[in-house]
């Protein structure tokens, strides 16, 4: 019986080492995925602006300096058009959702209407960048995002939320 307990005691170290390896792998993997996602989100966000679109396209095609001078105005114009279309689409989507909520309202129970009002208020708060405490500030992968001014700031450049 004592040999059984001594055998079990000698197995806890390798099991703990294996568990630690899995935990460390999960943490490192999570951090890597977070960095990749942050980079993709920033790339997509920058494509919504004329400058971001222009720079992204210039980086992708790697033009010569002569081509760069010719392509930059073309890309800038297209980027401005895309930025404007994005704003218009968002406005149209907001209007459509508002219409949907008004159309649904008569068909809902009082409890469902209350939930719809709560959901709509949360949506409007996010849209306007407000919470009950003031401007919404969120941390995304080490960067502070303020919905009030729509800017990402590095951790050292932001104040505490």
From TrEMBL:
Tagged with keyword Transmembrane helix: yes
Superkingdom to which the source organism belongs: Bacteria
Transmembrane parts of this sequence: 15-37
Originating organism: Longimonas halophila
Keywords: Membrane, Transmembrane, Transmembrane helix
Record bears the keyword Membrane: yes
Name of the featured protein: Zinc resistance-associated protein
């Amino acid at each position: 019986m004592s040999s059984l307990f001594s055998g079990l005691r000698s197995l806890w170290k390798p099991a703990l080492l294996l568990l630690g390896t899995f935990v460390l792998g999960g943490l490192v993997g999570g951090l890597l995925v977070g960095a990749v996602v942050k980079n993709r989100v920033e790339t997509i966000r920058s494509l919504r602006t004329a400058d971001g679109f222009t720079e992204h396209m210039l980086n992708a095609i790697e033009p010569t300096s002569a081509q760069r001078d010719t392509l930059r105005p073309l890309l800038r114009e297209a980027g401005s058009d895309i930025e404007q279309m994005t704003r218009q689409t968002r406005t149209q989507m907001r209007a459509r959702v508002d219409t949907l909520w008004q159309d649904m309202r008569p068909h809902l129970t009082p409890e469902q209407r209350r939930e719809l009002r709560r959901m709509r208020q949360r949506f409007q708060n996010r849209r306007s960048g407000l919470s009950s405490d003031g401007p919404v500030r969120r941390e995304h992968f080490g960067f502070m995002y303020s919905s009030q001014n729509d800017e990402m700031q590095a951790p050292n450049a932001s104040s505490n939320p």
